[in-house]
Amino acid sequence: MNAANTLTPAVTQGRPPSGGRVRSGRRVADRTLRIACTLATLLGAVVLGSILLMLIIEGLRGFSATLLTQPTPGPGSEGGGIANAVLGSLVLTFIGIVVATPIGVMAGTYLAEYGRGSKLADVIRFLNDVLLSAPSILIGLFVYTLMVRPMGSYSGWAGGVALAIIATPVIVRTTEDMLRLVPGSLREAGAALGAPPSRVIMSVTWRAASAGIVTGVILALARIAGETAPLLFTALNNNSWFSANLMGGIANLPVMIYQFALSPYPNWQGLAWAGALLITVAILALSMVARLVVKSERAR
How far apart are CA 115 and CA 75, in angstroms? Predict the structure, then answer.
């Protein structure tokens, strides 16, 4: 009775208990944060949508019947296309991914299978994380010092090596993460059959993580497809068709877009917009393929 009497004045005077005030404050904070997050999302969507809309409009204006059949024109020339730049980008990207894939897969396999708990693996993992976040222009300068200056000229080989250095840490990280997701019972089953660790890795763990490893390679491919800064110091650019010896400047889309966009010629600017749209669509397609690979693997 005494406890009830002591609570009655607080209720009759309309003062909510402390628990009610706490819940009311939490609801206000939740609504405020929700509104702030929604506004930030809308702002980002508007900015990205504006960029994509401008890219689509200007890029479609730059498309022509000769866009993918003729090489880039000279200064002040009319017509032309970007066929040589597209071909050069495909070659440079192919070289980069061919060099990076075996190195990345092997290094990721070592970190996941052989180097668990070792100090060497920790050092390699740390260096890989640093390389993963390193500015691409620094990698271009490194390859310029390592290859371009001693060789005395720009080359497609130097451009491919620069792209390989950028792609390798992506493949290493993805391969290690995918192999760590493979259940240990599969390894134990292979070992119980008398298979050595190398056979277990090649026949069991690699096969179980194959979809994730392929996804990492595709993501690395999308990463290097649009890199411009390292190619400025390694492959540079030219207006000629692709040369099989890969020596001298090699035409490529990223550098072509950079140079043509800054030019005073309307024809070059239109080709730059068309090339930007083309490379954006290509990267989008690679990202969609990676998502489809992951989705198909999860559906199994």
Answer: 55
Pairwise CA distance, residues 244 & 48, whole Å: 39
Residues 6+ apart with CB under 8 A from 17: 10
What's the rounded Cα separation, in Å, for the pair 294 and 281?
A: 20
CA 290 – CA 284 distance, rounded (Å): 10
What does the alpha-carbon distance between residue 95 and residue 117 come to, in Å, rounded to a whole number? 34
Please state the pTM of the whole predicted model: 0.84
Q: Between 6 and 158, where is the model more confident? A: 158
CA distance 276 to 257: 7
What's the rounded Cα separation, in Å, for the pair 54 and 183? 47
Return the HEC string of the chain: CHHHHHHHHHHHCCCCCHHHHHHHHHHHHHHHHHHHHHHHHHHHHHHHHHHHHHHHHHHHHHCCCCCCCCCCCCCCCCCCCCHHHHHHHHHHHHHHHHHHHHHHHHHHHHHHHHCCCCHHHHHHHHHHHHHHCCCHHHHHHHHHHHHHHHHCCCEHHHHHHHHHHHHHHHHHHHHHHHHHCCCHHHHHHHHHCCCCHHHHHHHHHHHHCHHHHHHHHHHHHHHHHCCCHHHHHHCCCCCCCCCCCCECCCCCHHHHHHHHHCCCCHHHHHHHHHHHHHHHHHHHHHHHHHHHHHHHHHHC
264 beta partners: none
- pLDDT tens by residue, 196-241: 989 999 999 999 898 889 989 999 999 998 898 999 999 988 888 7
CA 283/CA 222 separation, integer angstroms: 5
